[in-house]
Amino acid sequence: MVTIEEYSRTVQVASYEVGANAKIKLSVLLRMAQETSEQHLGALGIGYERLKADGIVFCLRITVYQSSVCRSTMMF
Known about the structure:
The chain is α+β, with helices and mostly antiparallel strands. It has one domain. It contains two helices and two strands; from the N terminus they run H-H-E-E. The protein has helices at 26-43, 48-54, and strands at residues 63-66, 72-75. A hairpin with a 5-residue loop joins strand 1 (63-66) and strand 2 (72-75).
């Protein structure tokens, strides 16, 4: 059995990935969450084919921290 540990990465958000309100677009956040999840599973040696073969899925927990200068750090 694989022990799942906390995994995080730092991303840069481009100006076109935020809306007029200077907040990240939901579609961008979800894309980044999926990319980070794939990287985490890859680091654990559990790729899509293994999950499919084992008949399991994974769920995400997303916490977004945002400062007053529109810099975001996301932990997945």
